[in-house]
Amino acid sequence: MITGSIVALVTPMHADGSVDWAALERLLDMHIAAGTAAIGAVGTTGESATLSVPEHCEVIKYCVDYLAGRLPVLAGTGANATWEAIELTRAAADAGADACLLVTPYYNRPTQRGLYEHFKAVAEAVAVPQVLYNVPGRTAVDMHNDTVVKLAQIDNIVGIKDATGDIARARDLVARCDADFAVYSGDDATAMELILAGGKGNISVTANIVPQLVAELCSLALAGDREAASAVNARLAALNRALFLEANPIPVKWALAHEGVIGEGIRLPLTRLDDKYHAEVVAALEVARS
């Protein structure tokens, strides 16, 4: 089981939108050095929605090959068509990904029965460990805890990324699922509380820009040290807010480019962060690092 800070990694791009492989290597090296527990490749933050299927698979394989076992790779392979999710998950497994992260099917708004059958079909088709991902604010579908508990009984469904920000709901999941089913936060602002409630880590946007701090927060929370974790969390609070001033990953890619870590490439329909937000992001970074 992966525990700790799992970065929801951006996909660095050149100005023309092509993948910047050299910058990707720099990011992976940075996370190895910073104590990040695992790499979340090509999820929402990695602009999975605008990568072609071949590009999607290529980025996952590149991360696996470059890391060569130094960090596990949690590959984003969700889709709103079950056949496509199976295809992406199989490609990630063939590439050597340690596990796959599958978002609820977006836009077509399946029922709870449809969600169960979708994830069951992917799990039965590909033996790789699979982590569910519930983010109703982006997908327009909410997977209920009853559905998650039922899916958790399938052997290779091993966890969930809960991005609802609802700690009571997360506590209910932790209480109702076996100890070997991992509940991860998908919401940086409430990650500390979820981990203290029994969660196993945070699949984090903020870890892209301050990976050591997020790793420290997760470590302290996993150890049950509320006081020390709260001190780190207070330093991160403004940054957690600033990185969602516009749709993720717009602010975090701008922050990384501002610091010279990656270029400014981002794919339409996403655009560069509006100038009016620049000072707020920079100020939040300064607070986090103070």
TrEMBL record:
GO terms for cellular component: cytosol. Pfam families: DHDPS (PF00701). Keywords: Amino-acid biosynthesis, Cytoplasm, Diaminopimelate biosynthesis, Lyase, Lysine biosynthesis, Schiff base. It is found in: Cytoplasm. Its EC number is 4.3.3.7. Coiled coil: none annotated. Its main location: cytoplasm. GO terms for biological process: diaminopimelate biosynthetic process; lysine biosynthetic process via diaminopimelate. The record marks 49, 80, 84, 106 as: L-lysine inhibitor binding. It catalyses: L-aspartate 4-semialdehyde + pyruvate = (2S,4S)-4-hydroxy-2,3,4,5-tetrahydrodipicolinate + H2O + H(+). Gene3D superfamilies: Aldolase class I (3.20.20.70). GO terms for molecular function: 4-hydroxy-tetrahydrodipicolinate synthase activity. Transmembrane segments: none annotated. Pathway: Amino-acid biosynthesis; L-lysine biosynthesis via DAP pathway; (S)-tetrahydrodipicolinate from L-aspartate: step 3/4. The active site is at residues 133, 161. InterPro entries: Aldolase_TIM, DapA, DapA-like, Schiff_base-form_aldolases_AS. PANTHER family: 4-HYDROXY-2-OXOGLUTARATE ALDOLASE, MITOCHONDRIAL (PTHR12128:SF66), DIHYDRODIPICOLINATE SYNTHASE (PTHR12128). Catalyzes the condensation of (S)-aspartate-beta-semialdehyde [(S)-ASA] and pyruvate to 4-hydroxy-tetrahydrodipicolinate (HTPA). NCBIfam families: dapA. Homotetramer; dimer of dimers. This is 4-hydroxy-tetrahydrodipicolinate synthase.
